[in-house]
Amino acid sequence: MTVPIRLRAPNGMSRLDVEETATLADLVRLVREKTGVATFSLKYGWPLQPLDLGDEDALRIPVGDLNLRGETLVVVPLDGAPEAAAPAPSVAEAEARQPERFEPKRVEPDETVVEWPERGGFMVLRVMPDDNSCMFTAFGGAIGISDPSRRLRQEISDYILNHGEQYNKAILGEDPGRYTQRMRQSDTWGGAIELSILSDIYDIEICSIDVKSLRVDRFGENKENRCIILYSGIHYDRIAFTMDLSYPVEVDVTRWATDDDEALERARALAAKLQRLHYYTDTTDFVIRCEDCGWIGQGTRDAAAHEKETGHARFGEMQID
């Protein structure tokens, strides 16, 4: 069995399919051949972290044991050669990872709170880990599910396969079997489709507040209760109410009646505060060029449409003076 790995290097985006039994040393050799870079470091994950290449024992580890399936490895030259401008993510990464310069501003704890004196407490932001399961963790915590990623991914996959007429290839963008296979993997992010399904499964309205626009996207109609999550471009967090900032998260209030407009407005006030602090990642405004044919577009949505039409998947960001 092979491990699919994407490479982001000075010469653009590419893909490697590496045998699980191959060693890390074999992977280094393949990266060198693919990129033409003689000496380099490798970074992966979000936020980016280095892959240890300096230990002989580490270099003998099988690739299958490194948890790199579906990862993007960033190749950082070490020989002094000039690096090309960092290419924009492929469409497969469009809602997964962005270069670190698109990372949202980190905020201090006292900046993630708005007082709610009428109810004697505070609306707070509960920040989720950057582990590719932030949406599942944000929602799962709101409804009281511990360690929700695996469970929710499986439930979503079962729902899709049991509702083939509603969730077909035209809606999912690919064969439902392939889509659900990816969704079960821990490196696949959830989005609007998954939120809509979770709303049906758990009979709850999910309000997702976009930090950049302050738009509220509602998933699920005619429900009695709602939960509220925050979307910052490439990440989801949970919004909760607490009577005292010293209380543990286990006593948070995370569900409200759907006619409780004050709760939603207070959550939007918190999002507005975070917007002023630039707690979001803008993935729509940069100009993208297709490295395969020279096509030029704007943002990941244009890139997604172009990839669907042509099959091209190598994109770079154009610098506009």
UniProtKB/TrEMBL annotation:
Keywords: Cytoplasm, Hydrolase, Metal-binding, Protease, Thiol protease, Ubl conjugation pathway, Zinc, Zinc-finger. Residues 84-109 are annotated as: Disordered. It catalyses: Thiol-dependent hydrolysis of ester, thioester, amide, peptide and isopeptide bonds formed by the C-terminal Gly of ubiquitin (a 76-residue protein attached to proteins as an intracellular targeting signal). Residues 84-93 have a biased composition (Low complexity). Residues 123-242 form the OTU domain. Its EC number is 3.4.19.12. It is found in: Cytoplasm. The keyword Protease applies. It comes from the Eukaryota. This is Ubiquitin thioesterase OTU. It comes from Phialemonium thermophilum.
